[in-house]
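Subject: two folds for Thursday's group meeting

Dear M.,

Sorry for the delay on this. The cluster queue was jammed most of the week, so I only got both jobs back this morning. I'm pasting them in the order they finished. Each block is the input sequence followed by the predicted structure tokens. Could you check whether the formatting survives your parser before we put anything on slides? The first protein is the one we discussed after the seminar.
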Amino acid sequence: METTELIKKVRQIEIKTRGLSNHIFAGEYHSAFKGRGMTFSEVREYQYGDDVRNIDWNVTARMSRPFIKVFEEERENTVVLLVDVSGSREFGTMERFKKNLVTEIAATLAFSTIQNNDKIGVIFFSDKVEHFIPPQKGKKHVLHIIRELLTFEPEDRGTNLNEALRYLTSAIKKHCTAFLISDFMDNDFEKSLRIANHKHDLVALHIYDWREAVLPDVGMMLAVDAETGRQQWIDTSDASLRKHYADSWQRRIDNLQTMFKKAGVDNVMVRTDEDYVKQLIKLFKQRA
């Protein structure tokens, strides 16, 4: 991508996603992803009903009457985006490719993050961790993230969610909010999911296209696996084949939902032709 074209695309993404974060997500984000820790603020006289465990015994002894410590929530948070850059992100049959939707969602979350004075970082992954942008604050940092989202080319095309989740757990030492943005073309990552969500606050955003759920009746069609490159001719006019395709999709979704529920991970599905704003607000309201 040429420099002038890249600058134009970055600017377009910035205008759209920063506007969304400013006017729609600011309050929702703040209430949905609060800071976790508590920090000492002040002392005041003990009142009936206060937790006696918060009594400040030094001040109490000095003043000859009980005082308690008052704490407030640490507002600053760190957000990490785990972005799936495997080959299947290049699929899309409706309004946009999955990778375009991922870029917009990631940029919107990034601007919402810095608007709340939080740090934002990104882990790009395929079947390995491809690139890590450490968490920082500021608009300049977010624009760098958007440029990477638009231009990054992975070395591999497969998907390994275990690798991404293990990297998150080991690389980010302090508690963070992590958005796992993927089409989840992988199996058997429940243990890593559970461990990552125990240490961090993990949220899953499942990106998919309508044609992953429903096979159209268009006769003979060459199907290509975007991650392995394997090709196969299939007869889409076969009703039993289309039913098997739809049933396989539903089983995969049911398994994912069961996995997320067991691990305690909040999640939402976003289709390539859908308004992702509605889905994100729905997610935020669930967590508020």
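Second protein, same layout:
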Amino acid sequence: MNHEIRRLRQSFQYAWQGFRACVRTERNFRIHLTAAVYVSVFALLGGLDVVKYAVLCLCFALMMAAELLNTAIERLCDKQAAGYDEQIRQAKDIAAAAVFLCALFCVVVGAVFFLPGGALWRAVCVLCRHIWGLILFGLSLPVAGVFIFCYGRLK
């Protein structure tokens, strides 16, 4: 029993290592993480109901899982191919297309949730009514930019 628990704990550790490696090395993954944070904040400020928030969380999970799988496929393909290989290129393109499709779906879901019901407008109004919210939002943008574009390069 103790051996099984240790193996389970190790499997979680390996998954966490993979997640951290992707955050460190993949700019697009950092973009998705950042977008998920901003959308979550705007969903809370805009007063989205629990069901819509749960669907958004599913969208975040789908998007990040697709990006993780795309990264794994790209790395396996790069390891396998010594030079240019048309099938490897197609495999990588198809994996990238899967990520694009997930991203497109997430944008559509976000637009359906935020635009017709006025949640985006309500979130902006909440920010505008509280100067500290505007200041925090403004300060978060350069931090998000550094995270997205520089995080993997910082040592």
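Two things I noticed about the second structure. The helical segments are 2-25, 27-46, 50-80, 86-114, 119-129, 131-150. The longest helix spans residues 50-80.

Cheers,
T.
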